[in-house]
């Protein structure tokens, strides 16, 4: 079958794509920037990548007219609070109007569980998208999920951050809110199971695991699985804003995402009964089993997708290809050249930089910079990296975004997503047995220039020694 897959660079899309390819489908992947989608990860074929932005109707003509099925997995939860609801409606309307001109028979939409009269803005937006897609000529199948648990999912990584870092938690009262978490493995099974299944046409189904748990339960069960003793004290006086700051400073999430999550966590998300799991022969996994499976992937360094892969900087809205050519005019540069004893060893070190591996010199200063960035509302260092030794364009790397990762050309280019009065690039390139390490900063106004000279002394010995460490054989 010929299937259109939107949101393919998101967490759900990256988990769903391999399953569709394994079933022998031809998958048309919609991305905003083809340069940040690595097709080499899918060597078996059956995949076509097209550049589409559903907020720009003129780009939709790239979608083939002979598609039979489509997955709508576009969400804007990381967008600014005043923007994301309107953006989601515009995307859904543009998608619907164009897809109705194709041969598509069924569209599958992953939404959020809606079972309260008063919804968070996030869940309200999801319901609005569902209403738009339902008023169409094609058959819509909506799957509604709550917390999705898997290595790399935002929910799992936030729970992981909280429990691993805090032996005692003074937590808001929304920890008593009930939810019905579901394993990412089950989500993928449901998404593939309803495909071309006439029983699911023009219907919606809540999907979840077998347990109804409070958020406090989620934290304590995680702690038990990890063999950690944790004390959680809930207080009634923590406002949503304070709760958002609490999540933001302790976990790797952005403040915008933390705000949306807190508002959603105040609403119970419990599945209404249905027989879909039975009809599709799916056995929902327990929350504890979901955690164990997530850690199996982490232990083998095989996390295939992460919520951090979503673009977060407005400078990247037009795609990473716009940033691949590092500017020279009006920029400050710090260039270091070091002889390389063993190019392959140096390349391996470059490809392993950041995350748990660190930055090879003065890691404590990198962590201080990350803390300062977090205090200024930036992403900090807590995003880490998805894989210890592999990098692909579009992935997050601490407070950088990977723009180009070309092992054949021995080049790695990073773009800063930290809070800066300007733009910054960090490039590593091996040529003629030399490592050329270049930090480029394009200042914004007087503050940008003052910032460069303020950090110049630190750059002097950090970049100098980092280059030497990388070049060592």
How are the SSEs ordered, and which strands pair?
Blueprint lengths: L1 E4 L5 H12 L3 E6 L15 E5 L17 E4 L11 H16 L6 E7 L8 H14 L4 E7 L2 E2 L4 H12 L2 E5 L5 E2 L2 E2 H10 L9 E5 L5 E2 H12 L4 E5 L4 H11 L4 H11 L10 H4 L7 H13 L32 E8 L3 H9 L11 H13 L20 E2 L2 E7 L4 E6 L5 E10 L2 E10 L1 H27 L2
Parallel strand pairs: 1-2, 1-4, 2-3, 4-5, 5-6, 6-11, 7-10, 8-13
Antiparallel strand pairs: 9-12, 14-19, 15-16, 16-17, 17-18, 18-19
Helix pairs in contact: 1-5, 2-3, 4-6, 6-10, 7-8
How would you characterize this protein structure?
It is a single chain. By secondary structure, this protein is of the alpha/beta class. The chain has two domains: 2-300, NAD(P)-binding Rossmann-like Domain (Rossmann fold), CATH 3.40.50; 318-471, START domain (Alpha-D-Glucose-1,6-Bisphosphate, Chain A, domain 4), CATH 3.30.530. It is built from 13 helices and 19 strands. The strands form five sheets. The protein has a seven-stranded parallel beta sheet, sandwiched between helices. A six-stranded antiparallel beta sheet has the order 14-19-18-17-16-15, covered by helices on one side. The chain has a two-stranded parallel sheet with strand order 7-10. The longest helix has 27 residues, at 445-471. It is globular. The model has no long low-confidence stretch (mean pLDDT 85).
Please describe the structure with a list of short key phrases separated by commas or semicolons.
alpha/beta; 19 strands; 13 helices; seven-stranded parallel β-sheet; Rossmann fold; 21% strand; single chain
